[in-house]
Amino acid sequence: MNLWQQLVGQDRAIEQLTLAAAQDRPSHAWLFSGQPGVGVPQAALTFATALLCQQEDPAARACGICPACQSVQAGSHPDLVHFVTEKSSISIEEARDLVVKAQDRPSLGRWRIILLEDADRMPERTSNVLLKAIEEPPPYTIWLLTTPSPAQVLITIRSRCRAVPLATPRPQQVAAYLQTQLGLSPETADLTARLAQGNLDVARQLASDPDARQRRTQVVSLPLTLRNLPAAMDAADRLISIAEAQAEADAQARNQADREALLRALGYEEGDKLSPTHRAQVRQLEEDQKRRAKRIQTDTLDRFLSDLQTLLRDVLTLQVGSGSELINLHLADQITAYAQQKSPQQTLELLETLKLTRRRIQGNVSPRLAFEALMASFLPSS
Ligand SMILES: [Zn+2]
């Protein structure tokens, strides 16, 4: 199967990219952007695959079956450098390393491709390291950058790249994907697609994990029943606990494995005495793991905010009587009761508070304080 078909709801981007992949000299720098979960890294990787694909016919590229396509999919193509970070910022050293790798001649295909995810995580000093490399790369090098939004990437970088804005897939497109690719029944696919709001990662998780479905319902119904301030504080506490548990579960699954892999790579068995240099490397790994845990927690809390946003959208839909279908249809009774306790103006203010909470948890405000303030603002006005 042609790999382009795996992208959901991206007809315009696919048209732009397949044309480019068929050219003799495609642009040498690209910036893919789109909301989390719409498939930004997948689109960039599929474009990389099309550029490296061995099919003679340009229309058949990203075929998915030739050796080049298969090694890209397996993450082992020698001409593709795929950089992903789990840290909150990309370091100058990491950028320099990519600049060096961008100079290497391709060994199999025509192109040397550097796929750099989350270019928005480059501080200005890091961006400056990449500038020249992106502006005047060797003729065989193509840079693919990704970001949630172009505005989050420095203008100097952005202006040197061809923009590939990805669409947010419509619920019908997500539902069709869930039915055909994951085998969901039409009803479950519709419900899941509505709740996922164009986020395919969320759709896949809700489709495959009953706990995730239950947790989402918990999160969305939590603010609807708050009666007083202590209850609001408890609700904030529960949300924070769920996010901490999520980070903890991930840590248990991965930290020990990462540590063992590092020790093996350094030539040690567990329990061996480490040299000072290697001890520093293990400490660095532990620091990275702490940062990763923090990021998972922040991402989970951010997800809760997106879920709560769908709740407020439903409340507003009922208050202004727009007649649009509710996203959280399964909670219609509770949401209707809540909508009657507030005015549309108050719901709009709540949406603003939600945005502020999002900025706070991405910044350095304690998540607990941010969520306590948010939950308190959901209380019925006295
Ligand atoms: Zn191929």
Bound ligands, named by name, code or SMILES:
zinc ion
CATH-derived topology of the largest domain = Rossmann fold
Please tally the β strands and state the result.
5
Helix and strand content put the structural class at alpha/beta
The total tally of domains equals 3
CATH level 1 name of the largest domain: Alpha Beta
Shape: globular
Helix run count: 15
Mean pLDDT: 92
Largest sheet descriptor? 5 strands, parallel
Instruction: Spell out the helices and strands N to C.
Output: HEHHEHEHEHEHHHHHHHHH
Q: In which order are the strands of the major sheet placed?
A: 2-3-4-1-5
Query: Strand percentage, roughly?
Result: 5-15%
What would you say the CATH architecture of the largest domain is?
3-Layer(aba) Sandwich
Residues in helices, as a percent range: 55-70%
Identify low-pLDDT runs.
Answer: none
The H-level CATH homologous superfamily of the largest domain, spelled out, is P-loop containing nucleotide triphosphate hydrolases
Gyration radius (Cα, Å) is: 23 Å
Would you write up a description of this structure?
- This protein has 3 domains: 3-165, P-loop containing nucleotide triphosphate hydrolases (Rossmann fold), CATH 3.40.50; 171-208; 225-377, no CATH class.
- The protein has helices at 11-22, 40-52, 67-73, 92-103, 124-135, 155-158, 171-182, 186-196, 200-208, 210-221, 229-266, 276-320, 332-339, 344-362, 367-377; strands at residues 29-33, 80-83, 112-116, 141-147, 162-165.
- Helix 4 (92-103) links the parallel strand 2 (80-83) and strand 3.
- Strands 2-3-4-1-5 form a 5-stranded parallel β-sheet, with helices on both faces.
- It is of the alpha/beta class and 382 residues long.
- Residues 53-55, 63, 66, 68-69 line the site of zinc ion.
